[in-house]
Amino acid sequence: MNKKRRYQIGVMGSAADVKYSKKFEKIAEEVGQRLAENNCTVVYGAEKDYDSLSTAAARGAKKAGGVTVGVTYGKGKDIWDKEGNTDIIICSGLERGGGREFVLVNSCDAIIAISGGSGTMTEMLVAYQLNIPIVAIAGTGGWAEKMAGEYFDSRKRMKAVAAKTAKEAVEKVMSLVKEYETKR
Amino acid sequence: MNKKRRYQIGVMGSAADVKYSKKFEKIAEEVGQRLAENNCTVVYGAEKDYDSLSTAAARGAKKAGGVTVGVTYGKGKDIWDKEGNTDIIICSGLERGGGREFVLVNSCDAIIAISGGSGTMTEMLVAYQLNIPIVAIAGTGGWAEKMAGEYFDSRKRMKAVAAKTAKEAVEKVMSLVKEYETKR
Amino acid sequence: MNKKRRYQIGVMGSAADVKYSKKFEKIAEEVGQRLAENNCTVVYGAEKDYDSLSTAAARGAKKAGGVTVGVTYGKGKDIWDKEGNTDIIICSGLERGGGREFVLVNSCDAIIAISGGSGTMTEMLVAYQLNIPIVAIAGTGGWAEKMAGEYFDSRKRMKAVAAKTAKEAVEKVMSLVKEYETKR
Amino acid sequence: MNKKRRYQIGVMGSAADVKYSKKFEKIAEEVGQRLAENNCTVVYGAEKDYDSLSTAAARGAKKAGGVTVGVTYGKGKDIWDKEGNTDIIICSGLERGGGREFVLVNSCDAIIAISGGSGTMTEMLVAYQLNIPIVAIAGTGGWAEKMAGEYFDSRKRMKAVAAKTAKEAVEKVMSLVKEYETKR
Lengths: 184, 184, 184, 184
Prior knowledge:
4 copies of one chain form a homotetramer. Chain A is of the alpha/beta class and 184 residues long.
């Protein structure tokens, strides 16, 4: 791996149509902020119609002066974030619901999952299939909660590493990316 | 919808590296055969390195004189099936592990899941996100078993309809595609 | 290559927003018809908003009792063809304008180009880059005319083989697919 | 458009297997450098096997302290650039030869083409189809030379704006992105 490139960490989580509490939004922002403080680039799924925990992580990263990349679907760069929390927009050209998510996760060195519905579970499964380390924050409900500490199938290739807090999630993801890098 | 086009039904299930019993392979073949008898096109995930329950369904469909479409990854049409059970090969140009699976499911009117690891669960989640009906065969283990009769997230958009046998799965998928067609 | 699979021949050409004469439409239909008579599957770019020379080829193929595959963009199978000239619809999940076209060409054993604007030239270039043989019908204007008998860059990997009529185009494409198959 | 986001300008040009002179490599580097000086993010096609004019532009941008994004094919982030000239790597999951190129161009606000074979022409055509402004440097040979000042088809939607030098190319691309932004 290119020694000078920052780690690219994806933050995955519920979209606003799933409804999530202010508390989980705070966790997502804290994850983004801590990743930025650890000199990581935050990669997130940029929506065009509403907010998400993934977008909240980008907001947190920018508060801490970090770098953010939003991966969106279809064409057109007019994403939901108008506040300028997205340094780079990638238009995957693929539809949302699995296609865009594939490009998003494929571009990450590791991912952190918070709560999450079908999209977040898809993202964890893609990461598993691509051998990209996963940290899932327990206590946030949804698929992240269900998968924390679990394997994704009987191949038992790797577990979603469980974390209890934003702090622990970022610490664990940092050690995972370093470990995986050495293996390569 | 084009009135003359046959329904395109995807059959999703474990790949051979997950290991599955002869019994589940028989179920997959029977699903393929029954879909062909119901005048459906069987859409399956064509691998380049090994067999799968999805491929077994294509075999079953051809035994019954059906039409099969294999959706593969990357480029190059040299797929694992050398017996001629694939009428049409689609090269998605996308990597396996979520990308190819997205094109595969997106091209189906409905899907049937049998047993299945991370790939099959990804395919069910894509179907859910794209509003494509899903039948999951209970008693086959894996993610199909876990999801049979369940919603995929708190949006509760639709359940994976549970079936106990190949026969029931095909009956249920036929009524689902007709119902969804009317709704459109 | 799978011995029993029919050759999958793509027919590429102008979309209706470019405007083309009835004469070129006839050529496209004849190409489709002759491919069907030669036992080929016709692969075409299925639009959702208007007709195209590619769609005309599918019409011709169906008149001759052939098999047709329409590769469309985005999601949703509601394509422009309502007459039932499409046996199988593939939803690439990718946007039109290069993405869908990539899946389309990647799924062909060879392509025939008729007239054509930017989309058709993109398709010829993709074929060239993927080492998929190309026949271009001279005398139909557009990029097919410009490229007939020409290389696509200084690599001189292969030429667009020139043909003057639908008949000659299909004869040449049949000998090209057989030649390429032997080389593999 | 997000007011704070830097313009994302793609630099497209021959890959090293086409062979290009030191002179053109210098032009590409100068384009990258000038884009960085104009506060643009340089988006380039990251190869895994060899150098390219696109990669040269990223080198130039980094010399001037700019930000660079490399869009690569398939999976795996082990790209040709080992010097650290790539701030962010996007893995498109799509094959090279049209697929990766689509994600690359779709993620640009405008592109500059230098010399170039089939890949560069594909990229200009994708830009044309997606309504993304194009500057082509005349005098560099290849498709950039052929298309400088020309329309891409009879739709005459837009021309590849001709430039004679790296300086002029960057000046023209800056005025084009501003003009297109206003139109939106």
